[in-house]
Amino acid sequence: MILSPATWIWLPLIAAIFSGFTRHKLITFVLLTVALVCALIFGRVEPLAMAISTVLLLVAHCIPTLVAHKRNKRLINLCWTVVILTCGLLFLHRLPGFNNLLVLDHVYAGPQSLPFTMYLNLDKPIAFFALLLAYPQLVGNKQKLHFKGILLAIVLLVSLLPLASLTGALKVELSLPDWWWLFALNNLMITCVVEEALFRGLIQQSLSRRYTWWFGLITASVLFGLAHIGGGMLLALFATFAGLGYGLIFHFTERLWCSVLAHFAFNFAHLVFFTYPALAH
């Protein structure tokens, strides 16, 4: 485990993410500004990355106003294209100028697990804030909960890890490494938030509003699976089914934080009860 003074940069960033779910826009972006300025001072963000982030957030901020005033659709589509493409590059760590912090370098969750490396990212969270500005409905609303549907989603998610162990990709291995708290903090407040914001908050929700709920659910889940294709076809397949579980929870709660919590619980159960990230052959 590698911790440095620069690690403290992520505290205002995580606070900004939490604030984003409370819809306090001013507090959210004050905290984000503090985090980015500190990152610039510590050399974790370079001026080019700061400029790209600023332009992205400004373009995202303009979209709801353009939509509300029924401005030129081509301009709206252009803004959305800029936001989606830039967020995709942030998601894939393809934009220059972000020096993400290495905190876990080839560590082992257990004796039968593959080595695991983890960074604290600054680029991926920027995508969350951009989507929050561009799509105000991102975090959902407070509709009545549908407990039968939620139970169905939980059953699906609970069954996936044992099924993965039957394929030989995982193996039961009880472990709680000393870096579990860092994994949990990063996974809950950064990884799961950003992924759920993109796939459930934006893609699933917007397609469900435009077409049907099941079309949005399936499309977002398939795209979520494809995003994991780098780990092989089997991982992509299981990620697709996991995406269906997270998507069902989002559909039946209409609250983004619920799908984030489900996503985190699934990942943390994977860490504690099975070989993580996979079985070492």
Question: What does this protein structure show overall?
Answer:
By secondary structure, the protein is mainly α. It has one domain. The chain is built from ten helices and two strands. It has helices spanning 10-21, 25-41, 47-68, 73-91, 123-134, 147-166, 180-210, 213-226, 233-253, 256-273; strands spanning 101-107, 116-120. It has a two-stranded antiparallel ribbon. A hairpin with an 8-residue loop joins strand 1 (101-107) and strand 2. It is globular.
SSE layout and pairing:
Layout: H1 10-21, H2 25-41, H3 47-68, H4 73-91, E1 101-107, E2 116-120, H5 123-134, H6 147-166, H7 180-210, H8 213-226, H9 233-253, H10 256-273
Antiparallel strand pairs: 1-2
Helix pairs in contact: 1-2, 3-4, 3-5, 4-5, 5-7, 6-9, 7-8, 7-9, 7-10, 8-9, 9-10
Strand content: under 5%
Series of secondary-structure elements, N-terminal to C-terminal: HHHHEEHHHHHH
Number of strands: 2
* Helix segment tally: 10
Span of the ends, CA to CA: 24 Å
Keywords for this structure?
281 residues, mainly alpha, two-stranded antiparallel ribbon, 2 strands, globular, transmembrane, CAAX prenyl protease 2/Lysostaphin resistance protein A-like domain-containing protein, membrane, endopeptidase activity
